Amino acid sequence: MPDPTPPLTEPAADLRASHADRERVAAHLHAAAGNGLLTLDEVDDRLAAAYAARHLSELAPLTADLPPATEGSVAVAPGWSAITAAVSLQLRTGVAASAQRRRAVRLVAAHPAVAAVVTALLLVGLVLLARWSGLDLA
Predict the structure, then answer these.
(1) 3-state secondary structure of 16
(2) Which backbone phi and psi does 55 adopt, to 5 degrees?
(3) How many Å apart are CA 119 and CA 102, to the nearest integer?
(4) Rounded CA gap, 91 and 97, in Å?
(5) Domain residue limits, the chain
(6) Mean pLDDT over residues 112-129, rounded?
(7) pTM for the full model?
(8) What local confidence, expressed as pLDDT, does residue 131 receive?
(9) Distance (Å, rounded) from C-alpha 56 to C-alpha 63?
C-alpha cells in the first residue's frame, strides 16, 4: 500500500514563514540594535524585510551576521527596579499614615468625653480671641 502523503521535495528553507518566525527574527534584531550592533537605519530595513518575508529562506540572511540570540540578550531598561521600590515604599508609607489618621479619628469618635472637651476648648479659645480683638459678642 503506497504512502498517502507525498515526500517533501522542497528544502526546509523554502517553507513558508509563520508570524512566530517573523516575530522571533524581529526580537533578535531589536536585541542587536539595543546592544549597539545595528544602526537605526539597518534595523528599520531589516525589520521591514522580516515582516515582508514569506519564506524562511528570506529570514535567515537578516540575522546571519549577528551573534546568536540568547535568553539574556534583550536589554532591560535600567532603573525599573528602583522605580518599583520607590512606588512600593510610597504606597506603604501612605497606607501607614492613613491608618494613623483613622486611629486618631476613632479615638475622638469612640470617646464622647474627649470630643466634648476638644469642642469646649475650641469654643473658649474663640471667645477669648473675640474679646482680645475687641469684638462685642453680646
Answers:
(1) strand
(2) -125, 155
(3) 19
(4) 10
(5) 12-73, 103-138
(6) 82
(7) 0.46
(8) 81
(9) 12
